[in-house]
Amino acid sequence: MKGGGRVDKEQIFFDNKALALNIAHGYFEDKYAAVEREDYEQMALMYLWEASMEYKESEQTKFSTFATTYIKNSFADYFRHIKRQKRAALYQRETDRNQENDNLEESLKNLEAENTGEDSLSYQLLRLDLERDLLRERRKLRKSEKSTAAGLEILYAILKGVSGAEIMETMEIPESSYYRCVKKARKHLWQVAMA
Fold it and tell me: Are 71 and 20 in contact (CB under 8 A)?
C-alpha cells in the first residue's frame, strides 16, 4: 500500500473491495431487503472509493478501520435520509387526507344550506337531477356495496333537508363512517357521471 511514503489509493480500493461488499451484505440481509442487493453493493463500493480518497496515512489508523467506519456512517446517513423522505411522504398523505375531509365537510355544508340567491331555480333543478341520479344508483347498489349505498342514502337525506347530525343519529353511525360513506358515494356518482 505504501510506495515511497505515498498511499496508492486505487490499490487500497481494490484490496478492500471484499470489506465493502461484506458490509453491504450485512445491511441487505438485516433489515433493508427492499432495495436490490446490487444497489447496496454499488453504494458500498462508492463509499469505499470516497473513503480511499479521504484517507490520510498520517491519521495513524489502519485503512480497514477507517473504511469500515466511513462506509457504515455513509449507510447510516443514507437510511436517515430515506426515513426522512418516508416521514415527509406520510405527512403529505395525512395533509392531503385532511384537506379532502375539509373539502367534503364544506361541500356537505353547502349542500345542506338552503339557496335563496338569484339562481335558486337552477339550484332546484340541480337538486332534482341529483335526486333522480341518487335514487337510480341507490337501487343498483343496495346489495353490492353497502358503504356506498349508505353514502347514497345519506346524500339523499341531505337533499331532503335532513341535517348531518340527524342522519348520523338515525342511521346509528359515527361521524367518521358518515364522511367515509359520503366520500364513497360521491366517488361512485362521479364515476357514473363520467361513464
Answer: yes
Q: What total of structural domains would you count in the chain?
A: 2
CA neighbor of 133 nearest in space, from 158, 156, 105 = 156
Look over the chain and give the mean of its residue pLDDT values, rounded to a whole number: 75
Coil, helix or strand at residue 32: coil
> Final residue of a domain: which of 44, 74, 91?
91
Asked if 172 contacts 138 with a C-beta cutoff of 8 angstroms, the reply is: no
Calculate the alpha carbon distances from 145 to 131, 140, 188 in Å. 19, 9, 10
Distance CA 142, CA 51 (A): 66
Domain containing residue 13: 2-91
For 157-171, how does the pLDDT look when each residue is reduced to its tens digit (9 = 90+)?
A: 877 788 888 888 888
Q: Which residue has the higher pLDDT, 70 or 149?
A: 70
- Give the position of cell 395525512: 94
Task: Estimate the crossing angle of helix 146-159 against helix 164-171, to 10 degrees.
Answer: 140
pTM of the entire predicted model: 0.44
